[in-house]
Design goal:
27% of the residues are buried. Helices cover 18% and strands 29% of the residues. The protein has a single domain, classed as OB fold (Dihydrolipoamide Acetyltransferase, E2P), CATH 2.40.50. The protein starts with 15 loop residues before the first helix and ends with a helix. The protein is an alpha+beta fold.
Length: 180
């Protein structure tokens, strides 16, 4: 059974993610085939950025060697310190702002992007100590970051993202065009 069919085949109640979050996708991020990202949007506007089920890190049985939130010499996502109700100190990110770089044991490197505009509220420091969370629980404990879009943009941030159905069509089309 492929990942598209696993929705709720066993008749269990939907997960917390399925109940309270809307899944949005960005396929082939920055033109790189299969580098798909997932944005889980909560009804309170918070967005959780994670790897899509089809990302090469999750598909090809890779092992994560390291995760680095140091984006450039002068920008580390780990230095993001947010305080107060108005989220002072949060770094502002755009759609294509890098959040982290993941290096696999075969030295393949992937850059994970924010996919949406907003304030970076949190990066998941737990995956630095336990990188396997990224592989085992990408939508929950293995998430990359949490972003809060501006209130006035909260409806429009998903314009450049794909719904689950649109994403499934992209993945199906992609698998049909690849040689066996």
């Amino acid at each position: 059974m492929d990942w598209v069919e696993k929705k709720n085949a066993d008749g269990e109640a939907p997960s917390v993610i399925d109940r309270y979050f809307t899944r949005w996708y960005r396929a082939d991020m920055k033109g790189k085939p299969c580098e798909d990202h997932c944005v889980l949007q909560h009804s309170n506007r918070l967005c959780v950025v994670s790897l899509a089920e089809t990302h090469p890190i999750l598909q090809e049985g890779r092992t994560v060697k390291s995760i680095n939130y140091q984006i450039s010499n002068c920008c580390s996502r780990l230095n993001n310190k947010v305080s107060g109700k108005s989220k002072r100190g949060a770094q502002f990110v755009t759609d294509f702002a890098p959040l982290c770089r993941i290096t696999c044991s075969d030295e393949t490197e992937y850059t994970i992007y924010s996919c949406i505009r907003g304030r970076l509220l949190e990066v998941n420091e737990n995956i630095l100590e336990t990188p396997n969370l990224l592989l085992e629980k990408p939508s929950t404990e293995g998430y990359i970051a949490i972003i809060l879009p501006k209130f006035e943009e909260s409806k429009s941030i998903t314009e450049n993202l794909l719904t689950r159905e649109e994403f499934e069509r992209v993945v199906t089309k992609r698998s049909l065009s690849q040689p066996p």
